[in-house]
Amino acid sequence: MSDHPRLSLRVPEPEFRPGTKPDFSGVNIPRAGSVRRPPVDTAPEEIRDLAYSIIRVLNRDGEAVGPWADSLSGDALQVGLKTMMKVRAYDTRMQMAQRQGKTSFYMQCTGEEAIACAFQTALEPGDMNFPTYRQQGLLIASGYPLVDMMCQIYSNSRDPMKGRQLPVMYSSKAHGFFSISGNLGTQYPQAVGWAMASAIKGDTRVAAGWIGDGSTAESDFHSALVFASTYKAPVILNIVNNQWAISTFQGIARGGSGTFAARGHGFGIPALRVDGNDYLAVYAVAKWAIERARSNLGPTLVEYVTYRAAAHSTSDDPSAYRPKEESEAWPLGDPIERLKNHLIVRKLWSEERHTQALAEVEAEVIAAQKEAESYGTLHSGPKASGRDMFVDVFKDMPPHLRRQRQEAGY
Amino acid sequence: MPTMTMIEAIRDAHDVMMARDDNVVVFGEDVGYFGGVFRCTRGLQQKYGRNRCFDTPINESGIVGTAIGMAAYGLRPCVEIQFADYMYPAYDQLVSEAARIRHRSANDFSAPITVRMPTGGGIFGAQTHSQSPEALFTHVSGLKTVVPSNPYDAKGLLIAAIETDDPVIFLEPKRLYNGPFDGHHERPVVPWAKHPLSEVPEGYYTVPLGSASVRRPGAALTVLAYGTMVYVAEAAAAETGIDAEIIDLRTLLPLDTDTIVASVEKTRRCVIVHEATRTSGFGAELSATVQELCFYHLEAPIIRVTGWDTPYPHAQEWAYFPGPQRVGEAFKRVMEA
């Protein structure tokens, strides 16, 4: 061996593991209202600092402050709150349905509701999302029927995906929601391609790609950024940084980079970092990025800082790899509580109205569930047909599949 | 002798090899602190340190590409792809790189890596957690492909794979992790502890690559199977009363043609069973091999029982899965011919 000092491997580790007490007091959270709002046509190199800060609107007293605070009416905020509550009620019921054996699998978005719900509100009809499996809020905020979502979860006789897909792998072109894949990151370059097509055809519609912190490590993430950068595609590239990719903390995907948002700057793509648990901040940032795309100014990378408060999925037990108290200790709070407090401070809401709204969304979800279950669940009642397995492999069924379908008895 | 599940046997194989050889390193998504989503690497980071067992970014081509680089340095990486269905981003590294490095460098470099991945269905995983892509590997010159069906073989084959100087694809039927499964999904899960092949010796031993195992001797027909389908074939033999000779191939490439030929020459009939889609599946290769080597001994056409040529469905899982009834019907057809 030479005289050089010996090399060593760095393997990042999260600060807290089970058995340690999580303490986020050292985390630098910028004050609400403290981050500037540049014009949408600002050159990316002039807003590098925004990739390292956190845009926040709601302060600790529940007030909306600063340059990003102007955007939504009281009515719209009430709708936003109720939509988030509906998403959470839906998640709770479907999680329970899985535990009761009515389906095989479920994934909640607990603590992340503001991101999809507020973002969807900033889009226009005709725009297209390329989501991950944790953006059920996009569908619910766009008015997609809960019953249809549940029929997909149950793989029953009314499942729009005909029993083929794992629960939560929805698809709805009419609601601007591209078919979800179980493989990670594949949708990101597809979002860029859809946006490029809109530009090729001189259209006015824009696309939004979605990815989690862990999946930004996939090569497809980087493919998306290079194409978006080269062709200035009208696309919003969203990164939902919920801190955990199953058991792997965000530092494994982020590596030595300061933030996920900062990855945009290597590609000349403007990047914003936003408090993902702040409905108003998410909406304002989404509006900014969508306006940029729609004005033909090209892509924006947005990192939503949030926390995955529940397990990765019904197959996961997070107590094996992170402290149970970490979710409570997380400094950005709960998105529903924060918007509720804001509306109460503005005298647009009250504890009584909240209790009433909770009862309303729960009743709506329960009624939808009852209807969905009347069309069957995974293991009982009417089912998606085996015959459907052979349909849609191709537009027209080739002879060999016709023979196999016959052999299978359908 | 201790009994182990397939998960424990695979974990133990890692442990044995990491203790024997400092060059063995283990990595993949969720593989380090947590020990893998199926827990096949549980405790290895705690025992051997983060230098030898660690979590990776979610990037399969990165996992395989860095493994190749480490192997070029002289290490012996054994890496995990979380599901075989997630392998596709790594396919270029496997096909264009790992498989050919020895040949293209005239033996100057090689890629002694083991790439483990859970395969197959039966767990309601639908199209992205159920696939059986073995034929995508056997079709590539330069990759060895292994599919264990029980804890004893899993440990011995994995140790042999890690010691192999060429790249090995190690496909673990995930429905077998916690117990043998014969396709009767309506019945309670049978634990490994009740199966003789869950008796796993402590310490080092190998099951050599390229050797099949006759799991059920019989005179009426030969069944070529691997992974979960070995148990399905056993159930079909028991339920039809047909005296099938069931061969667990264990290694698909290199293939143990001696065992296959000896059996087919004896029984004169052959049924091939796999869970993967039929067209261009590994069954086509097996069928061609039997035809080439045993044509004059055959008394009936060779029959394949496989998954249908569709994506693996969720609700229709058991209509897709080639269960004991379909396999039993094939037995009867090949006997009637």
Q: Which homologous superfamily in CATH is the superfamily of the largest domain in chain B? A: Thiamin diphosphate (ThDP)-binding fold, Pyr/PP domains
Distance between the termini of chain A: 69 Å
Could you tell me which chain pair has the largest interface and how many residues each side has? A-B, 53 and 38 residues
CATH homology superfamily of the largest domain in chain A: Thiamin diphosphate (ThDP)-binding fold, Pyr/PP domains
Q: Shape of chain B from CA axes?
A: globular
SS-derived structural category of chain B: alpha/beta
What CATH architecture of the largest domain in chain A do you see? Answer: 3-Layer(aba) Sandwich
- How many domains of chain B? The number is 2
Label the CATH architecture of the largest domain in chain B. Answer: 3-Layer(aba) Sandwich
- CATH class placement of the largest domain in chain A: Alpha Beta
Structural description of this entry:
The complex is a heterodimer of chains A (410) and B (337). Chain A is α/β, with parallel strands linked by helices and 410 residues long. Chain A has two domains: 44-379, 3-Layer(aba) Sandwich (Rossmann fold); 386-410, no CATH class. Helices cover 36% and strands 8% of the residues of chain A. Chain A has helices at residues 74-99, 113-122, 136-141, 146-154, 187-200, 219-231, 250-254, 279-294, 326-329, 335-345, 351-374, 399-407, and strands at 128-130, 207-212, 235-241, 244-245, 248-249, 271-275, 300-305. In chain A, helix 6 links the parallel strand 2 and strand 3. Chain A is globular and about 65 Å long. The relative contact order of chain A is 0.17. Chain B is of the alpha/beta class and 337 residues long. Chain B has twelve helices and twelve strands. Chain B has helices at residues 6-20, 44-48, 60-73, 91-98, 101-104, 134-138, 151-163, 229-240, 257-267, 282-294, 317-320, 324-336, and strands at residues 24-28, 53-55, 76-80, 114-119, 144-146, 168-173, 213-216, 221-225, 244-248, 251-253, 270-277, 303-307. Chain B has a seven-stranded mixed beta sheet, with helices on both faces. The longest helix of chain B is centred in the first third of the chain and has 15 residues, at 6-20. The radius of gyration of chain B is 19 Å and the shape is globular. The mean pLDDT of chain B is 98. The interface between A and B is large, with 53 and 38 residues.
